[in-house]
Amino acid sequence: MKVNFLTIFPNYFQPFKDESIINKALNKKIIDINVIDFREFSKNKHKKVDDEIYGGGHGLLLQIEPIDLALESLENKGGYKILVSPQGKTFNQTIANWLSDKKEITFICGRYEGFDERIVDLVDAELSIGDFVLTGGELPAMVMADSIIRLVPGVINKDSYQNDSFQNKGLLDYPQYTRPREYKGKKVPEVLFNGNHKEINEWKLKAQWEKTLKNRPDIIERLENEK
Fold first, then answer.
1. Residue 70's CATH number
2. What is the annotated role of this protein in its UniProt record (predicted)?
3. Are residues 82 and 178 part of one domain?
């Protein structure tokens, strides 16, 4: 998989590439990450990529031309193109699963007051990571990319994510424990030590539902409505 990031702050992405699972996937050539500073495609002598808002308004908008030219410069025009925006559809595990099959994905990271609306016409999807606003699209783009990349075959062991939260009917993951068996009076559930796999699996499923009901009742409501 190839992942492109269009940004005016390319240094944001160096730590993302240099550490942990992402770095290992790069070294194994399972993925390729390309960071493009779309200021380089500005025809303004000062490399300006934003301007005032027609009709009035606060702040400045990113212009369409530098972003369009940056996309045109990419092989396959960037593959599946995502505009990172708080106005987009909320990213989730289902979307991550679907995008992990793509050969190439491009994230367009916003800044300032937002984008010229015509930029929306250049992309395949407009995605958000939640109902809040950040100073730019770089962090959300890395969050989504990390979620997608870990699902690409060979990046991590498949067993490591098959039972993740949101994978099994959308439920949260069941509680998990390690040593010590007891800490300050808090004990690991005894069922996990009895060797009866049927009982352990039943406990895990029940615990999944209980944890999801406690932390994300909206998921339980959705599952009930789907019946």
1. 3.40.1280.10
2. Specifically methylates guanosine-37 in various tRNAs.
3. no
164 catalytic residue (yes or no): yes
CB proximity list for 25: less than 8 A, separation 6 or greater: 31, 149, 152, 154, 155
Segment 41-58 shows an average pLDDT of 94
Whether the predicted pLDDT of 113 surpasses 90: no
Prediction pTM value? 0.90
Chain mean pLDDT for the chain: 94
d(CA 76, CA 34): 14
Residue with tokens 């060797």: 195
| Catalytic entry in 40, 65, 68, 113 | 113
Residue ranges at the known binding site: 110, 129-134
Active site residue 75: no
Amino acid at site 30? I
pLDDT in tens, 136-190: 999 999 999 999 999 999 999 887 676 666 776 789 989 999 999 999 999 999 9
Asked if 150 is an active-site residue, the reply is yes
Number of structural domains the chain divides into:
2
Burial 63-83 (b: 16+ CB within 10 A, else e): bbbbbbebbeebeeebbbbbb
Domain that holds residue 42: 1-156
Of the chain, the end-to-end C-alpha distance in Å amounts to 36
